Structure formats: C-alpha cells, structure tokens
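Next up, sample data.

:::
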Amino acid sequence: MSILPLNSTHYPAVIELGNLVHGENYLDLDGIKMMHQRGTQHGLNASFVAVDELHGVVGFRTSYSAGQWPIDKWCSTTLWPVGSEHMAYFKCIAIHPDAQGQGIGPKLLKASVEVLKQQGAKAGVSHLWMQSPGNGAVKYFTKSGGKLVKAHDDRWLDLSLYEGYCCPVCGNECHCQAAEMVLEF
C-alpha cells in the first residue's frame, strides 16, 4: 500500500470511489479538480490517495489549505481554537468498503496534516457524516484527536435538493447530521 499525493491521473478512480462510498453524484470531475486546487499552496499538495498494487486507488483524502476554502453557515468560527487564517479544511475521505478497517484513513490524514502544517495551518476542521455506518467517520476522527465543536442538522439537504446528490441513507432529501470537528496540529 502506498500513500501518494493526489494527481490528475487519479481523478477517475477517486470520483468512482467517492460516489460508491458517499452516494451518487457526490463527486464529479469539476469537483475533484476544485478540491485538488484548494488543497495546493506554496507548491505543496495536501490531498492524498492510497494505492494498492492489485486494486489501484482504495482510498483518498482531500484537504483544503488554510485561506483557500469558503467559510459558510456551517462553520462555527467563534468556537474554533485558531483563527480562520490558520484553519485548514478536511473536505473528504473515502475508503473502499473492502479496504476499511486496515488503517488507511489515519495514514491519509497523517499525510495531509504534515503538508498542511508545512503550508502554515495550525488546525483543520471537518464536517463529518454522523449517519455513516456505525458513526465510523466521527469515531475515526475522534480517535485521531479531533474534538466536536457543534452538530449541524440537514448539512447536505441543499446538495440533495438542488445539486443531484443522492444520500445513501436518505435518498434525494438528505437530513443527515454533520459533526463539525477540529483537529489541532
């Protein structure tokens, strides 16, 4: 298993994996290009893939560099331990179901954190899917040192109603909760 910086040759496999894990229309070419761009600063790329010789891309983590992502109504900036100018964003992680439980997620997170620190970030925030199987997303991030800031209802509702996202739990009208969590570096 190799952890490699995301590059454009990985895009098709990342899109397929993202849609498999997170639901139909979760990720497309424009989306992954934008994620990749937002995670690159000072020539350093904070997004990574896990590649298995036999199966290809079995996991990915996209992360946004501090100052290169939109702070929206789902961000509780007054509750953050660092200012927004030093806050990175952990956008997305997906591990193929057959590869889950093998420690790939923590390896991808560690690689992203190392680059984000080099870029000048002091912490990263994420909105984690609380309805993931067994609430695995929140458990994984907590085990990695993340702390809950706030829970948000209907975080992905607009994506499902207006942008074609199909939640694997709710279908075309997503009412899942998001755990806004921060990981300090």
Observations:
- The mean pLDDT is 93.
- Residues 2-184 form a domain with the Aminopeptidase fold (CATH 3.40.630.30).
